[in-house]
Amino acid sequence: MKTSYTQWAVMKQGHINWIIVILLTIHASLLAWSATKHSPNLNEHAHLVAGVSHWKFGRFELYRVNPPLVRMVAALPVLPSDAKYDWSGFYESPGARAVFLLGPKFLKENGRKFIWYLTLARWACIPFSLLGGYLCYLWAKELYGPLGGVFSLLLWCFSPSIIAHGQFITPDCGATALGIAAAYAFWKWLKNPKWLQAILAGLVLGLAELTKTTWIILFVLWPLIWLVWISTRNTTPLISWKRQFSQLTLILLLGIYLLNFGYGFEGSFTKLRNFQFVSNSLTRKKIDGQRAQEKNVNRFADSWIGEIPVPFPRNYILGIDVQKNDFENFGRDSYLRGEFREHGWWYYYLYALAIKVPIGYWIILGLTAIHACYAGSSGSASWRDGLVLAAPALSVLILVSSQTGFNHHVRYVLPVLPFAFIWMGQSALWFVEKKKFAAILTGLSLAWAIGSSLWIYPHSLSYFNEIVGGPRYGHNHLINSNIDWGQDLLFLNEWIKKHPEAKPLYLCYYGYLNPQDLDIDSSLPPVNENQSPDFQPPPGWYAISVNYLKGYGWRQPKNGFSYFQKYQPVATAGYSIYIFHIKESDLK
């Protein structure tokens, strides 16, 4: 094994560098082109206007359910533009989501120009994905050699989920990239516990915390990993324990400091009793003496715990509360395999990953597990290295899966992927070790996965693997942002231009962008309000977003357009808008 590593270690680094540059350039090109082809997803207008508000007013109420870093980066190229804003819809109250009033106003004020502003904002966020890919290479290279690093980079660059979310200004890809950056910096500190490395790990931790509240788990997870790491090093002197504990404390304090700094220390160290919470987890019922009725109050208001200052920004804590309230009380139907219900499934994300990740990746994951067992203690990576990779991924998966109030978005577990990609980098060693059968199978699986991803591109958001028949059949298993996030209105516009005969056109679009801004002349299809099985629409052309086709009720009556399921579509715009031509002969 060591001889094989040595052989690969002497590869000219210049060649490797060129491979990295080429792969990252291809990845950036895929993201940049796809960013120009898709209409705003359901959340991007809100993220962009919130990012602008942070810069203009130094306030962070808007879109508080996510920390501000990614959207502030996205807003940078839009700030010097002539974009118009209407802030008159702003309001503040417990649980407020005013951003979903201001976002549509931003769209309305700027019309078609918004597409260009959004494109600039999307391009500004591409470096997040490039960073994630490069760190996959670096970490896997240190564990499994340069070929393992390149292999992991390939997995990142051509993952349909990474391509899908790397093109958007939503925080999922940025959180994924900075999450792996923080974990890598922490691992480097564990391997070489010096003060400078501790400072770097703390700073990167703070940046990761500014992308998504999911990473708050690191404040608990890292001390636990450190305890396991240091307790299994029998040669570590006692003085090292004390020094490392001091450095770990510095890492966590720096992470907290940078998180507060990113919010401008807005409401930092507010006492717990002074928060107005809305979620069931953080409130309790209390009788209002004047009105003789129950009301929700902060459950910590009358306890000694309420006197504790919270070392996090006010809107960071309120964002967690609002997100928790969404999971508990929002009442949005979850959908899985054709079934709607008010609550989710504990296995939802496992199922979603099984059909949203290319089959080739799953084969490689199996081969990686075989190699890990085969290599055993003779491998270059120890079980402790594996722990640093596995613990964050499993923690995120368990945390998100435990929130079964509703299940909508596989993107919530996107941060799991790079940890898997890095570990899978060891499958490249089948080539180094000249295990022909395993090497051929690994190569074919990788080629299949890349080909499968590029075949669906630029519709990567709607990607489903061949197990379920690809994206054309994906809606039978998952909907929402897993296939239809409002991203295909521009593709519908292209289809309409090629088919001028498609009149009259009835459109039910899952998104906020006004079709008239794209010169799409359409009206809303008739709604089957009584759910009559004999309901029939008038003859004409119909474009129906797949979420509404399956019966989802956001912004439209539940099941109001599901009657189209009995008709065969004549075309699709992307994979999220189905086009029907209803003729007189189709009607009874």
What distinguishing features does this structure have?
588 residues; alpha+beta; 4-stranded mixed β-sheet; two-stranded antiparallel sheet; globular; disordered N terminus
Report the helical percentage. Answer: 40-55%
Query: What proportion of the residues form beta strands (DSSP E)?
Result: 5-15%
What's the helix count? 22
Rg = 25 Å
Which shape, going by the Cα principal axes? Answer: globular
Low-confidence stretches: 1-8
* Class computed from helices, strands and strand pairing: alpha+beta
What is the average per-residue confidence, as pLDDT, rounded to a whole number?
Answer: 90
Count of domains:
3
Q: N-to-C terminal Cα separation, in Å? A: 72 Å
What's the total count of β strands? 8
How would you describe the overall organization of this protein?
α2 runs antiparallel to α7 (126-144), α8 (146-157) runs antiparallel to α18 (416-424) and α12 runs antiparallel to α17. 45% of the residues are buried. By secondary structure, this protein is of the alpha+beta class. The termini are far apart. It folds into three domains: 2-32 and 127-264 and 342-461, no CATH class; 38-124, no CATH class; 488-586, no CATH class. The radius of gyration is 25 Å and the shape is globular. The protein is built from 22 helices and eight strands. The chain has a four-stranded mixed β-sheet with strand order 5-6-8-7. A two-stranded antiparallel sheet has the order 1-2.
